[in-house]
């Protein structure tokens, strides 16, 4: 678009370029698109500023400037009096939350699961095909109105039968992601891909906020990948504008922020403060947090190199420090502390695997409940009783343990970056990372965002760990415990091995997945997120 003959700029607009399939017009209404357009008009520029801040911060850390607690916000941390809004209706008891994508079958399974909360995930557990983005919105639209059913290709019918369904907390895409099937033309006539965050949030909020309130709950969100208080302030301003635009009382929205980046761990109180009118709590997003540590310290030398992914557990120093600080920070401010997702999942065809998964998940949730967390995540319905038993043992009849203040916790900046684990990198660990990343990416390219691989639930965050470790091990000239140098040649041999081992079918995406892996794990440059180039170049479905 160009300015008109009179010199005036065109009005900002949204343009849908994706294919309009059955019922898409119920989500992409003119009114909904106008609302999402208003969000872009007011907030797209600030989004770009915040993304530029991220790049500067990563550059500083990479050049030797360790993150620290901010001096300019010390007055916020030192003020004992402020509190966050806290739990909204339906969020007072969050002891077990189930996570998963928003396709109809998974939506129905989540609503029937018996969990207290469902994280309806439009982010790391969803491959952002155009179908998944819009049909996920349709699933949520129907579920909120009690009209969702699904019949599988085999003829099996799914419907919501639970008397009590979980409270829905929707997770939009992070600030860094775009929606290439919707364009935003700004006042200067520049046409850019829309923000995935604003599209996901805006469509869901516009269509469902009042219906959720009428159902006795509210429009609730999980906010991913935040790195600073300024990013939290941007979300808070989006919330305030949206409530005013739809005539909904200020503070109706409740957000739970995932602390899953290293910079955010140093600004937890500030993030709570900026969102205080809309904030319910924080979540310990463990897998992205490990990835963020690798990403930020990938070039800082051998002492910042982690061992095999399986050895980076919740009890290693930097993970222990971060979760202890999160619980203390949340409860100090009246916020809920929600634990993370153990990746172990049961296998209904293998009792031994299932028993091991139950044992490991129980131990993980026992530690979280004992540390003061108010709830936790699981990725499979069969794990809900296991997790709930551990939280029931600590909570009893209480809905949460926000009153537990944890004055015994003192966490320093150096403890948050203490990555010393003292374990080696193994050849099996290198192979495992290559295999998991390629198999996950292949499924992601076919539209699956959460994938069971080797009895673990893999999503974009765990794939990020796998590829970033390979990149760092190569760049830092690491050697495995049996003396094998970790090189690009070794990685190429492992790629060939993986491609020779997987079952190939017509139309599979393994060759594309291997090409993506080479780009994000073997290249000289390090893409900040593997999903960005993969989405731009390989996810063509429109």
Task: Give a written overview of the molecule.
The chain is an alpha/beta fold and 542 residues long. The protein has helices at residues 24-27, 30-62, 74-78, 104-111, 130-144, 196-214, 229-246, 262-265, 268-274, 286-297, 317-332, 351-371, 384-395, 413-416, 427-445, 460-475, 488-501, 510-522, 531-538; strands at 13-16, 96-100, 117-121, 149-151, 157-159, 167-171, 178-185, 191-195, 220-223, 254-259, 279-284, 336-341, 375-378, 451-453, 456-458. The protein is built from 19 helices and 15 strands. α15 packs across α16 and α16 (460-475) crosses α18 (510-522). The protein is globular. Mean pLDDT is 96; it is low at 1-7.
Strand order of the largest sheet: 6-3-2-13-12-11-10-9
The value of Rg in angstroms is 23 Å
Report strand %.
5-15%
Number of strands: 15
Distance between the termini: 23 Å
What is the residue-averaged pLDDT? 96
Largest sheet: 8 strands, parallel
Given helix and strand content, the structural type is: alpha/beta
How much helix, percentage-wise, in residues? Answer: 40-55%
Low-confidence sequence ranges: 1-7
Name the shape in a single word.
Answer: globular
Number of helices: 19
